[in-house]
Design goal:
By secondary structure, the chain is mainly α. It is elongated. The protein contains six helices and two strands. The longest helix has 34 residues, at 2-35. The chain has one domain (2-159). Helices cover 78% and strands 2% of the residues. It starts with a helix and ends with a strand. Strands 1-2 form a two-stranded antiparallel sheet. Bound molecules: protoporphyrin IX containing FE (HEM).
Length: 160
Amino acid sequence: MEAVNQVLLTLHNIIRWVVLILGIVVVVRSFLGWFKKWEYRERDQKLIPFFTGVFDMQILIGLILYFTKGWGGVLMNAPGDVMKTASLRYFAVEHWMMMILAAVIIHIGSAQLKKVTESLKKYKRAAIWFSIALLLMLASIPWPGMTSARPLFRLFGIVF
Ligand code: HEM
């Protein structure tokens, strides 16, 4: 199980950077399209589903990790203690809830885009929904300096 966790953690760590970069590109392009009144571009039509797909993959790896690393068990066995202890609460409850909320917002945003045909409305909706999701994601990553900090980069045993 330790080897499986190392592989999943490595993937989860690296995909975090991919999701973050894609999210930033999507948000910047959406604001540019909105303010510069772009015609809705094919690049965005492809980029948004790609961003959503990578985000969902990260959620799936996170869900597997949640059980293989024992966080699900910790919460089920001692919910009271978990809620009282910040370091346990972070991964047992807060991290995944916020990330799933971000995923829900991304999916609502994508569906909202499909409902309109006008380019300006598409970019405006994308800018609003994806900015909220990006902020939630940024706020829910275990950055260095936090109680539940995790490495900025992980490649199996190599971390920094
Ligand atoms: C896009 C969404 C997500 C991002 C960007 C993200 C990001 C991260 C990062 C950067 C780490 C630290 C990795 C490391 O130690 O090298 C981490 C750890 C973890 N994440 Fe996520 N995560 C996301 C979604 C989720 C979800 C939905 C779950 C659970 C359902 C989850 C469960 C975990 C677990 C269990 C750990 C390992 C904690 C430990 O070290 O024991 N993540 N996540």
